[in-house]
# Entry
Amino acid sequence: MDIKVNVRETKGDTYVVDLNGEIDVYTSPKVKDAIGELIDKGHYNLVINLEKVRYIDSTGLGVLIGGLKRVREHGGSVNLVCTNPQIKKIFDITGLVKIFGIYDDEDAAMKALV
Amino acid sequence: MPPFQGTLGTVELRIPSKAEWVAVARLAVAAVANRLNFSIEDIEDVKLAVAEACTNCIQHAEGSDQIQITCEAGSDGLTVRVRDFGRGTRPEGIQSRRMDEPRVGGLGVFLIRSLMDSVEYDVNPERGTNLVMTKKVAR
# Structure
């Protein structure tokens, strides 16, 4: 069980964080570090692509919430790309659909940041 | 909480109380759930609930180095017991939080209660914390 993290710079100082694997109590620190590093460098508009994430638990959600709170302090935002019904269900149950922009594809998530 | 009818068997697992072992617990319980007539969605629910319970043991149970997971499979549902051997979980470890304010932490118990049909905690400073949760097979 692991998570692969890939960070890409795109237009307009927006960064995309591609995640591939399972996000749980063991792997979430790696995701937290990647997002934290971007924010520490002054990048406050992020798209986190969950398309290849097969599983996420509350520690993973906590990392995403923590990142969102940090970028909002600087006027930024975090949008998510997610179509996996089980993962969308978790965002729905927890009410996080109301605080994250969740999109079906990366283009839509990018456009919504601008 | 009475056991489900038509007991099919009991599966027990004990893992070290460490983050890297939680995946083993959730996959083992998913395999048990897969033996019953649960839908894929319900199996995912059980898997996440068990992982959240184990994560809570790791994060909140003081002095426990093991987690015991017991699955009792019945023809109409699954009972899962997750037990640590600590000095009792701190109250914040088993409280479900209000969902009207986004903040880091506290989502685990809320998810367990949302995903399972019944959830009971027995917190004892001498025996540790025992969580019993059930999921019925949808008809």
In short: Chain A has a mean pLDDT of 95. The first strand of chain A starts at residue 3 and ends at 9.
